[in-house]
């Protein structure tokens, strides 16, 4: 028998397995035995617990492939269309602020784009396909005919539609939304807090606030029974507004919408100085009593993973792959195809062209689909591989293989200590 490579000691008080979620409170006597790890020194009861809880394993138990745990269907493809990088807002933290390109996708280019989507679907044999309207801001008036054409293409080809929007121009598109709402899966709209906070961060080109207009458009979407997910991007400047914002949205919409709490991140390395660490946001979420609340999604993967492992009685599947990279395809105004919207300035992450000539790099797609923490040298033997999934691939490229092991460990400590505190209260 040997120690599981996923079992680690927390604060000399707990033994925790990040793969199976096994958590044991330990004393100094047991800790000494664990550190020495002579099997005969453990009592029969300890041996039984260690084996049944997967803290000790035989040589074959931890030889597995990512596919053993892969609950993501390889039959899913998601296509992001960046109609242009133009936007009617001037948000303070936007990762596209450094992109100066002025090109736009045209109706003419769309025909080539649709042909490439069909080609990728054929290559992947994907059974579920979705186009995500993206930008900049997709719902600018100048994009009207192209979005109409895109939704018509989707309806004819059994492709669903979603959108990521700032929510200010939805009313302009009410006719299209009514016509195609049977294929619209969801709309993600960003609001960064109550009016006081949002109207500092998410402002128009003339510095005007956007809160009231966004709320008006969310009201319209809920009346049309369009699924809406509200994304609140959190950093040091608005984190203390989270409880008030959630309370406002619940009072207004009850449970009709989902609220997604996301960290402002710097995956493209633009130098944002207001970022929160995983442990800082963990402490805040505990203070706000928001780690496990209906209709509030913690869209911060390591924190959410730890929370699920510790608080869900069912086995939580490990996160050996951070995202569905390889299943995402982003079409840019210049005619290029990249792996995701945040990768469009990283030419090592380009996977093809759709205009003027079509080319799909099938080998790179295959590599990305197979990419996971178990085949990345710096991650495959890490305690935290089942929790962080090797992290955002684009972030690692931009920051030269940055590792968040220390921050994840601190968040884990904080969540375990919070559980023990609740037990005592």
Characterise this structure.
The protein has 425 residues and is α/β, with parallel strands linked by helices. It is globular and about 75 Å long.
Separation of termini?
Answer: 38 Å
β content, as a range?
Answer: 15-25%
Radius of gyration: 23 Å
Low-confidence region ranges:
none
Shape type = globular
Strand line-up of the largest beta sheet? 12-11-10-9-8-7-6-13-14-15-16
Main sheet? 11 strands, mixed
How many β-strand runs?
16
Give a short summary of the structure.
This protein is α/β, with parallel strands linked by helices. The protein has helices spanning 28-36, 44-52, 107-124, 144-156, 174-180, 195-201, 211-223, 242-253, 278-287, 301-311, 362-370, 385-388, 393-398, 405-424; strands at 2-3, 7-10, 14-17, 23-25, 56-57, 76-82, 128-134, 160-165, 184-190, 228-234, 258-263, 296-298, 328-331, 336-338, 350-353, 359-360.
What's the helix and strand layout?
Elements: E1 2-3, E2 7-10, E3 14-17, E4 23-25, H1 28-36, H2 44-52, E5 56-57, E6 76-82, H3 107-124, E7 128-134, H4 144-156, E8 160-165, H5 174-180, E9 184-190, H6 195-201, H7 211-223, E10 228-234, H8 242-253, E11 258-263, H9 278-287, E12 296-298, H10 301-311, E13 328-331, E14 336-338, E15 350-353, E16 359-360, H11 362-370, H12 385-388, H13 393-398, H14 405-424
Parallel strand pairs: 6-7, 6-13, 7-8, 8-9, 9-10, 10-11, 11-12
Antiparallel strand pairs: 1-5, 2-3, 3-4, 13-14, 14-15, 15-16
Helix pairs in contact: 9-14, 10-14
């Amino acid at each position: 028998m040997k120690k599981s490579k996923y079992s680690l000691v927390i604060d000399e008080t707990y033994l925790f397995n990040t793969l199976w979620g096994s958590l044991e409170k330990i004393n100094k006597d047991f800790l000494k035995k664990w550190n020495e790890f002579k099997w005969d020194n453990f009592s029969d009861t300890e041996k039984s617990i260690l084996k049944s809880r997967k803290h000790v394993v035989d040589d074959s138990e931890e030889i597995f492939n990512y596919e053993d745990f892969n609950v993501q269907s390889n039959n899913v493809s998601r296509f992001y269309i960046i109609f242009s990088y133009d936007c009617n807002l001037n948000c303070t933290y936007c990762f596209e602020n450094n992109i100066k390109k002025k090109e736009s996708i045209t109706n003419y280019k769309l025909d080539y784009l649709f042909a490439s989507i069909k080609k990728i679907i054929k290559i992947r044999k994907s059974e579920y396909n979705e186009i995500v309207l993206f930008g900049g801001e997709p719902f600018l008036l100048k994009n009207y005919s192209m979005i109409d054409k895109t939704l018509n293409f989707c309806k004819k080809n059994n492709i669903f539609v979603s959108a990521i929007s700032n929510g200010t121009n939805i009313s302009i598109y009410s006719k299209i939304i009514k016509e195609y709402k049977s294929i619209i899966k969801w709309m993600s709209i960003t609001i960064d807090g109550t009016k006081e906070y949002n109207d500092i961060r998410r402002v128009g080109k003339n510095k005007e606030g956007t809160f009231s207009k966004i709320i008006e458009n969310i009201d319209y979407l809920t009346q049309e029974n369009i699924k809406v997910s509200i994304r609140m991007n959190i950093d040091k400047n608005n984190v203390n507004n989270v409880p008030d914002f959630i309370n406002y949205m619940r009072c207004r919409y009850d449970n009709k919408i989902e609220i997604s709490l996301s960290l402002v991140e710097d995956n493209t390395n633009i130098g944002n100085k207001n970022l929160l660490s995983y442990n800082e946001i963990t402490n805040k979420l505990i203070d706000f009593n928001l780690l496990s609340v209906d209709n509030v999604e913690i869209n911060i993967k390591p924190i959410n993973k730890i929370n699920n492992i510790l608080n869900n009685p069912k086995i939580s599947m490990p996160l050996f792959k951070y995202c569905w990279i390889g299943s995402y395809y982003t079409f840019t105004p210049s005619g290029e195809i990249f792996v995701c919207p945040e990768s469009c300035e990283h030419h090592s992450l380009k996977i093809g062209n759709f205009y003027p000539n079509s080319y799909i790099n099938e080998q790179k797609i295959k590599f990305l689909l197979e990419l996971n923490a178990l085949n990345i040298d710096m991650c495959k033997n890490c305690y935290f591989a089942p929790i962080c999934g090797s992290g955002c691939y684009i972030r690692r490229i931009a920051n030269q293989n940055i590792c968040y092991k220390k921050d994840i460990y601190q968040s884990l400590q904080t969540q375990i200590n919070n559980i023990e505190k609740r037990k005592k209260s």
